[in-house]
Amino acid sequence: MNPMPKIYVAGHRGMVGSAIVRRLLAGGVAQDAILTRTHAELDLTDQAAVRAFFRSERPDQVYLAAARVGGIHANNTYPADFIYDNLMIEANVIDAAFRQGVRRLLLLGSSCIYPKLAPQPMKESALLTGTLEPTNEPYAIAKIAGIKLCESYNRQYGASHGVDYRSVMPTNLYGPGDNYHPENSHVIPGLLRRFHEAREQGAPQVVIWGSGTPRREFLYVDDMAAASVHVMNLDAEDYRKHTEPMLSHINVGYGDDLTILELAQLVARTVGYGGRIELDPGKPDGTPRKLMDSARLRSLGWQPRVDLAEGLRLAYADFLKAHRT
Known about the structure:
Rossmann fold; EC 1.1.1.271; alpha/beta; single chain
């Protein structure tokens, strides 16, 4: 590493990427040491363009937070886009990083990599032990491929080239910079928008998808950014002590979960909506439960700081800001 490393944050306009930039700046990294490119400036699915960028800029560290993401509806509607775009982004960035001598790279994945019926809480070792949740299988397979890319480059080039590529698997994330699209958003931003609009319109009820019984874990995005920077900068020997041989990924979760109905009730209180909450059991539930086992990361010195109630207040404030503009 150079005394003043150049750090490339791929996906810096997204919720996670922007939080990583905030965390780096708060930690003393100079603004001009952080490399960013918009999609218009650099299409990460274009191999030639990605290789040219790495040859020109020669970053020392890479945070790969760029991805095509969305909720159940988006995953069901655009499966080809989800698998193709994410496979291409990962393959292009990871290989270009290696070709230009980048020794430390962090891939951001997703808890959907684990089997639909994985034992709870889900350990890193549950990967590839069962069938994936069908609604987001294309996206999950792309993220699993990214993990295996990191592991494979470590196996083949770790000893000879000092390659140390890692992956973090976050639970469901939310917070500033989220996507509040009425159809293509994740559960928390989608609920925030729907309850806000219901309150504004005086609607007597809000209908939520599914039975309301699936349990989900949620992590505030700035906690995820702190975990990402923490994992990126861990000493290699310390990191290996807490991971299985050649296992590049590590879980990042809050450590507690709640049902979708309980979440909806909490969002309604946060927004100030006083109407009824109705369930639509004809819509898909997805995985029955997704709780991460984050014991490894906690043993490495990271802890979440923002609880769900406070995080929802911050997220709603961000929604109101985005809603006004």
